[in-house]
Design goal:
Largest sheet: 7 strands, mixed
Low-confidence stretches: none
Number of helices: 17
Strand order of the largest sheet: 1-7-6-5-4-2-3
Radius of gyration: 22 Å
Shape: globular
């Protein structure tokens, strides 16, 4: 199965039914699993045997989705979580306890920014923010002796700035720490960060992977490529007393990181995905490749329309040749970026409000990246906790409208945008 192309893996990855078994991966809606002896159960709790014993740590439905996403990203293992925020938090906490430091791109989702800037700071983890296109020298200058991870978004939400993944990876590896990349917007269909040196990938599966706005979820994917030896990550290379002295790197090899995330953090934090959500996510994944192709073609048509419209102040879409992100986008996402277009309407914030209120088919919602066209004003919603200076650093001007282009007929989408722009102009 590992030799299948990505669009085939979307359908067949993670699940190969045997004779007489369900064609569709079933929902195993059970918290617990029966074993014939306490010895078998004890071996599972000691991590000496593989198997399901409590759904917080593993479930057959969740397992199918985890294997599928790991295959799509080219990783050794994955762990689905209750939300994208939970995935980001656990991805960092797994190797960066209190007293340590993270270097992060400043162009990231507002909730993620607040996670680093406030919540993890309150937990004792400091973060230094840098430009997503920072030079190697600038990244080196941001590092500290206690830095334990570098973080970036492949394609920033909502500024659509493309992170220079290879430069981030070089800087991280010079420091002896992993690069964690949020790949939510491109999805593995359009970008596989492991190919450019990333070590860990996260997603909000709520977005394109689901694609239908029916479940909230996240995922952490482990490349298996990072060498955890060297003294900076004793939580992986030294005995874990809470599991009778297991050494993750010795017992689980390339899957040490993702195994610890499951058996330690998921055990203690409990941000697991529900089997029903995993089932719904799997249905979305089956059409991911098809949908991403349509999202990208529709978004390009919208961006080209907006770029020529005199009622529009500016447009940002990385697949436009006029975009400052065009060259980086073609390097990391040669087959397309995503379905999100950022732009400003002439007349500033007031005109932006009129535009959004004037839409008929498209909706104003606190969501992005599903099959229905929708929009949002980030500065007053998802990023409202940020100062003007922080908004500028994140590439989110006050007049920015984030338009998530769906998979409807492109002519209908353009007609709706055109009439809403006309209302905003008067």
């Amino acid at each position: 199965m590992q030799d299948y192309k990505l669009d085939t893996l979307c359908i067949h990855g993670g699940y190969s039914p045997k004779n007489g078994e369900p064609r569709v991966a079933p929902i195993v809606q059970s918290t617990t699993y029966v074993y014939e002896s306490s010895k078998e159960m004890g071996a599972l709790f000691d991590l000496q045997e593989e198997g399901f014993f409590y759904t917080r740590l593993g479930n057959p439905t969740n397992d199918v989705v985890e294997k599928k996403i790991a295959a799509l990203e080219g990783g050794v293992g994955a762990l689905i979580t209750s939300s994208g925020q939970a995935a980001t938090l656990m991805a960092v906490l797994n190797i960066c306890p209190a007293g340590y430091h993270v270097v992060s791109s400043s162009a990231i989702y507002g909730g993620t920014f607040n996670l680093f800037y406030k919540t993890m700071k309150e937990m004792g983890i400091e973060t230094t923010f840098v430009s997503p296109t920072a030079t190697l020298e600038e990244l080196r200058a941001a590092m500290r002796p206690n830095t334990r991870a570098v973080f970036a978004e492949t394609l920033a939400n909502p500024s659509l700035v493309v992170a220079d993944l290879e430069t981030f990876a070089v800087a991280a590896h010079e420091q002896g720490v992993p690069l964690i990349v949020d790949n939510t917007f491109p999805t593995p269909i359009n970008c596989r960060p492991f190919d450019f040196g990333a070590d860990i990938v996260t997603h909000s599966t709520t977005k394109y992977m689901d694609g239908h706005a029916v479940q909230v979820g996240g995922v952490i994917v482990d490349s298996g490529n990072f060498n955890w030896e060297g003294g900076k990550f004793p939580m992986l290379t030294e005995p874990d007393e809470s599991y009778h002295g297991v050494v993750y790197t010795k017992q689980f090899g390339k899957a040490a990181y993702i195994t610890k995330a499951r058996t330690h953090l998921m055990r203690d934090i409990g941000a697991q995905a529900a089997p029903m959500n995993a089932f719904l996510l799997n249905l979305g994944l089956e059409t991911l490749a098809l949908r991403m192709e349509r999202h990208c073609s529709n978004a390009l048509a919208v961006a080209q329309f907006l770029e020529k419209d005199p009622r529009v102040a500016w447009v940002n879409y990385p697949d436009l040749p006029s975009s400052s992100q065009y060259e980086l986008a073609k390097k990391y996402m040669p087959h397309g970026t995503c379905g999100v277009v950022s732009f400003g309407v002439k007349g500033g914030r007031e005109a932006a409000t009129k535009f959004m209120d004037g839409l008929n088919m498209a909706s104003v919602v606190t969501h992005v990246a599903d099959l229905r066209t929708c929009c949002l004003h980030p500065a007053s919603t998802t990023h409202r906790q940020m100062t003007d200076e922080q908004l500028e650093e994140a590439g989110v001007p006050a007049d920015l409208i984030r338009l998530s282009v769906g998979i409807e007929n492109p002519q209908d989408i353009l007609a709706d945008i055109d009439q809403a722009l006309e209302k905003a102009a008067h």
